[in-house]
Design brief:
Elements (H helix, E strand, L loop, with lengths): L7 H19 L4 H17 L1 H4 L3 H18 L27 E10 L4 E11 L6 E7 L10 E4 L5 E5 L5 E4 L2 E3 L5 E3 L2 E2 L6 E5 L10 E4 L5 E2 L2 E2 L37 E5 L6 H12 L16 E6 L5 E7 L6 E7 L5 E9 L7 E4 L6 E13 L7 E10 L5 E6 L2 E6 L2
Parallel strand pairs: 4-13, 14-15
Antiparallel strand pairs: 1-2, 2-3, 4-5, 5-10, 6-9, 6-11, 7-8, 11-12, 15-16, 16-17, 17-18, 19-20, 20-21, 20-22, 22-23
Amino acid sequence: MGRADEGFDAFVETRSTALLRTAYLLCAGDRDAAEDLLQDVLERTYGKWRRINTAPEAYVRAALANAAANRWRHRSRRVREAPLEDGVPPSLPGHEQQVPAVVLLHRVAVDGDAWQGTMLSLVARDAANGQVRLLGVDLPRQQGAPAGAFLFGPGDRTLLAVDQGRPVEFSLGLTVAEDGAVTRERSRLLFSDGVAIRTLPAWAEPVQSVLTLDGDGPLLRPQLAAEHVWHLDLPPHDPSRELPMPRPAAGVNWHGPQGLPFRRSTGQPFLPPNELRAAGQAELAKPRYRDPLGEPQPKRWELLAGLSGNRSLYVTEIADGGPTRIYGVVVRPDGSVETVRYGGPGRLSALPVQLRLPGEEGWLVAQQHAELRWRTGPDVPWQAAGQEVAVLPGNAREVEVTVGGRAERVALG
């Protein structure tokens, strides 16, 4: 072997076992096919060694993925199941323990054969019943977009991401301060044998997990096993049309008639409704209140209220892919913003909106289709507050919410 081939033998000797594990995953657990795939790629690598010897492993892993995808392209559009004995995944070569998951690659035509992409499927143990089954399918939403990240296991808290051949950072989720300001932290995701596996901490919301490529480049959102509805067989038509829609936001999500936003007013806002909405929306569009990696969704509801001193209040729910957040914006008579009040995460409850107003001004409370009453203590008579939305004084301690003849009592504070 000449000088131009120097280092090739050492590379094969030290990295072939790890590369075989990658090939094994790409071949869906077929040991013979994995060995053939790796041998073919190494033969091509030898011929190009002089050009790629500065970063040979990255080249070989990319070549393995491309070669595996090409093999899938020439097969039928039925995903071949990995051989499973007694419902247990096979062990990877060189591993004493069994692997938790297998990733399958399948070449598919997308958007009416406009372009071809690699569909990645996750086969692993279902946390609900312990059976091995297909838990996730990920397909690029557009040509060149990344794919291949999954959350599975108990509570969908185990992340498995396929190496994208580029630097990848992982953000666990959104942190919301007491004043409603939001932040995200990101950390470098480290890959071994072509995959990275992380466990989410208890505080993280799986739906808010995001991978970013090349710093602030493309986003990759993990597929959640709990939301997976595909079967092992591919649909007989264009699979891109079966892609799940963006997940609906978890929160209050009130709707008005015919799909229009739910809008209600209480008292008399000093500012005209359009001016108040514009001021409130502009304030909440600032980066401090927005998830920088989120998926903004249309506003479903808005509440307008009049406060003392000719001030106005705008209240809404921000939805950007994870649990929603309720905010109130207090606007001065001249249209400037006095303060922003954070109303907590949006949750379905008897009284989903309980917004504490500045100082001792009281509360804004709301529930769709509800009759509202309030009182200052257990032995004090109830006072009517009207329908759906009310501004209550600072000494209000309890609200009675009646919907469809059923009354529930909610303590404030």
